[in-house]
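Design job #97: recover the sequence.
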């Protein structure tokens, strides 16, 4: 079954809408280390490390949560946070670090970074479902996204724009109404809350794309997968 950018975007936002509380609260908890580092002004290196860790932990939790939701199970906050202690969580964290560093390095050249983002977009759900090694998960993602990388990027860009525009307005108005200056405690809290909403949307998208690509390339529906719910 062929999918489109529109169908991927609609599926992502429908899953976020139907499971918003569990996904949002989980993202808040997973990104708390970054909030703490920012508040105490831990420095740029520590902040980057905390941000990377927060993003990876969010990806692990929301990948499993999205798979659960797509197979008809209702994810809950406690269950999602337990995914941080999965047997393969070490490999998942390493995968996230490798992806983030290579993509960030690639973005210094602009186009290669965007292409690597598309190439490895579904590596995390591939590792969760098939318990792959880091290299095998990256290879699996490359195979699934082959001939669909522009479409994958289109879905990523569309979700990002749809989420970022209203959230930026909300972020600005909330800080203005609260009277918080840039770098103030209010600024940090509002940015954390708004960022968690964005993280929820973008954290679900790779798993949605994985399911669509899997069905298109292999004919396997998400309902046929044996998902380890932890």
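Job complete. Output follows.
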């Amino acid at each position: 079954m062929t999918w489109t950018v529109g169908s991927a975007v609609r599926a992502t936002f429908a899953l976020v809408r139907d499971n918003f509380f569990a996904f949002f609260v989980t993202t808040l908890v997973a990104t708390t280390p970054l909030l703490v580092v920012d508040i105490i002004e831990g420095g740029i290196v520590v902040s980057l490390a905390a941000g990377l860790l927060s993003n990876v932990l969010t990806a692990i939790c929301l990948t499993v949560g999205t798979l659960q939701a797509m197979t008809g199970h209702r994810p809950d906050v406690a269950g999602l946070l337990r995914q941080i202690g999965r047997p393969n969580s070490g490999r998942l964290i390493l995968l996230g670090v490798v992806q983030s560093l290579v993509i960030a390095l690639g973005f210094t050249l602009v186009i290669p970074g965007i292409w690597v983002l598309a190439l490895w977009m579904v590596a995390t759900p591939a590792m969760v479902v098939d318990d792959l090694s880091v290299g095998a998960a990256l290879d699996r993602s490359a195979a699934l996204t082959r001939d669909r990388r522009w479409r994958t990027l289109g879905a990523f860009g569309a979700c990002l724009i749809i989420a970022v525009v209203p959230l930026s307005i909300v972020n600005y108005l909330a800080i203005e109404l609260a009277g918080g200056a840039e770098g103030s405690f209010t600024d940090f809290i509002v940015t954390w809350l708004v960022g968690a909403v964005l993280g929820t949307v973008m954290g679900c998208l790779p798993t949605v794309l994985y399911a669509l690509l899997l069905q298109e390339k292999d004919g396997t529906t998400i309902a046929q997968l044996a998902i380890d719910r932890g």
